């Protein structure tokens, strides 16, 4: 029965493909032993290559050593490539300030992915079962999770983590082991009620089964599946909206149009916010619904307010934009000053951009493209050295096409340059003054006219050392 259920789950959810390399998270307990045994039985049908990995957390002393020995012996007997790692999780948890449970989980998955990357493994199989799913949904409910949390664990995550036992009850797994003469290792910490999950497993669910509904596990699992379907649809719509609302995307910064975001239904708006966070951080670890609510509230507040969130994430509003960034924000003046040769290339480390220059006859410059990042100047009008520096207080010049002079500060405000970027904004000068404000117009005094003979072309290139 268990084998049939697992095969059905694998086929329905497309957990395996032909010739997959599968790494089994193998603790030696009933769940992972059942999973490994079933995958070995299915291996010929899919032409699978099976591996197993075990992490000794050093939490249970001699028992943990015996767990590792059991796993090694089973894999040796069944021709499974076995990987073992020993880490003092209690010590590491104390050093990092993490909970023992989270630290152990982090180390396990770090091991799995290291092996995956080294061997080119396609799938990592973990042995979460239907009982685990029910417990997870209840725990998420108690924490006030949204649809994503209440959808429980996925059958497959990121195309890598697979959970073939997610439709199998714990008791079915225990019975499977007995029927197939498998003697798993038992972890006594699973019976310790001081852990929250154990309280749910040992006390709460039995109480519900006895006094309310005997099939609560199945109900919770089915509810999670229904919620997941709704969540995936809404999430797909939110992703499309995110692409429309996003105004800027860099490695460490994303900005959203506040007006467009404010007009969205809260269900979509909150997911768009999550998309932005994920783009900046690469994950949503430690980001809770409370944080999302705080960000949503921030939209209604005055520009300049800022939230400090986990993983060094900062969120603030600026000029009708909602900014997400991990950049350090301070008002310290970042100063730099570089001499730019008339012919050549100079990399400006402070702004991670290069400046390329070339001199030519006027007639040769007529068909050259210009943009906000590339301009041409009358070379003979330049006095002294060409200098690239950060903008300074009081900077002003006469942008071509405008009447009179204008302060650089005012231009940057109009361009909606972020506060932390204003201090290092590049300005090109000669001994007479500003020639060009980056990403804007050149000065009127350096434009090409009918008397121009020599032209210098100056172009900014991003991230080119």
Automatic annotation (TrEMBL):
GO terms for biological process: tRNA modification. It comes from Criibacterium bergeronii. ATP binds at residues 27-32. Belongs to the tRNA(Ile)-lysidine synthase family. SUPFAM superfamilies: Adenine nucleotide alpha hydrolases-like (SSF52402), MesJ substrate recognition domain-like (SSF82829), PheT/TilS domain (SSF56037). Residues 386-458 form the Lysidine-tRNA(Ile) synthetase C-terminal domain. It is an enzyme of class 6 (ligase). Its EC number is 6.3.4.19. One of its GO terms (molecular function) is tRNA(Ile)-lysidine synthase activity. GO terms for cellular component: cytoplasm. InterPro entries: Lysidine-tRNA-synth_C (IPR012796), Phe-tRNA_synthase-like_B3/B4 (IPR020825), Rossmann-like_a/b/a_fold (IPR014729), TilS/TtcA_N (IPR011063), tRNA_Ile_lys_synt (IPR012094), tRNA_Ile_lys_synt_N (IPR012795). This is tRNA(Ile)-lysidine synthase. It catalyses: cytidine(34) in tRNA(Ile2) + L-lysine + ATP = lysidine(34) in tRNA(Ile2) + AMP + diphosphate + H(+). It is found in: Cytoplasm. The N-terminal region contains the highly conserved SGGXDS motif, predicted to be a P-loop motif involved in ATP binding. The lineage of its organism: Bacteria, Bacillati, Bacillota, Clostridia, Peptostreptococcales. The keyword GTP-binding does not apply. Its main location: cytoplasm. Ligates lysine onto the cytidine present at position 34 of the AUA codon-specific tRNA(Ile) that contains the anticodon CAU, in an ATP-dependent manner. Cytidine is converted to lysidine, thus changing the amino acid specificity of the tRNA from methionine to isoleucine. Keywords: ATP-binding, Cytoplasm, Ligase, Nucleotide-binding, tRNA processing.
């Amino acid at each position: 029965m268990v084998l049939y259920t697992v095969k059905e789950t694998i086929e329905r959810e497309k957990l395996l493909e032909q010739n997959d390399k599968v790494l089994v998270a193998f603790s030696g307990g009933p769940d992972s032993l059942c999973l490994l045994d079933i995958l070995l039985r299915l291996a010929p049908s899919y032409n699978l290559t099976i591996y197993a990995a075990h992490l000794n957390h050093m939490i249970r002393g001699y028992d943990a050593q015996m767990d590792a020995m059991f796993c090694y012996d089973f894999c040796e007997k069944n021709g499974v490539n076995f990987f073992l790692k020993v880490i003092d999780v209690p010590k590491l948890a104390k050093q990092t300030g993490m909970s023992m449970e989270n630290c152990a989980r982090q180390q396990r998955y770090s091991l799995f992915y290291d092996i995956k990357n080294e061997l080119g493994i396609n799938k990592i199989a973990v042995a979460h079962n239907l009982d685990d799913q029910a417990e997870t949904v209840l725990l998420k409910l108690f924490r006030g999770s949204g649809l994503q949390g209440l959808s429980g664990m996925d059958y497959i995550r990121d195309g890598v983590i697979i959970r073939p036992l997610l439709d199998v009850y714990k008791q079915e797994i225990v019975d499977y082991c007995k029927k197939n003469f498998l003697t798993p290792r038992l972890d006594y910490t699973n019976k310790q009620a001081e852990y929250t999950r154990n309280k749910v497993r040992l006390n709460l669910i039995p109480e519900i089964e006895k006094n309310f509904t005997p099939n609560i596990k199945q109900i919770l699992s089915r509810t999670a599946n229904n919620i997941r379907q709704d969540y995936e649809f809404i999430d797909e719509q939110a992703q499309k909206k995110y692409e429309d609302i996003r105004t800027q995307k860099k490695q460490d910064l994303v900005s959203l149009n506040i007006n467009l975001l404010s007009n969205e239904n809260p269900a979509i708006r909150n997911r768009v916010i999550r998309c932005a966070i994920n783009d900046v951080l690469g994950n949503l670890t430690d980001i809770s619904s409370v944080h999302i609510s705080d960000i949503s509230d921030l939209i209604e507040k005055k520009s300049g307010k800022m939230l400090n969130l986990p993983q060094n994430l900062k969120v603030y509003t600026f000029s009708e934009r909602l900014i997400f960034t991990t950049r350090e924000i301070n008002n310290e003046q970042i100063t730099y000053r570089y001499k730019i040769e008339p012919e050549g290339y100079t990399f400006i480390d402070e702004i991670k951009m290069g400046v390329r220059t070339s001199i030519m006859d006027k007639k040769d410059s007529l068909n050259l493209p210009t943009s906000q990042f590339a301009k041409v100047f009358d070379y003979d009008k330049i006095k002294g050295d060409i200098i690239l520096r950060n903008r300074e207080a009081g900077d002003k010049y006469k942008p071509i096409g405008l009447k009179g002079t204008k302060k650089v500060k005012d231009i940057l405000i109009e361009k909606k340059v972020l506060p932390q970027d204003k201090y290092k904004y590049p300005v090109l000068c000669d001994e007479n003054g500003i020639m060009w404000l980056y990403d804007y117009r050149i000065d009127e005094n350096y434009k090409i006219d009918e008397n121009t003979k020599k032209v210098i072309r100056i172009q900014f290139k991003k991230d080119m050392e």
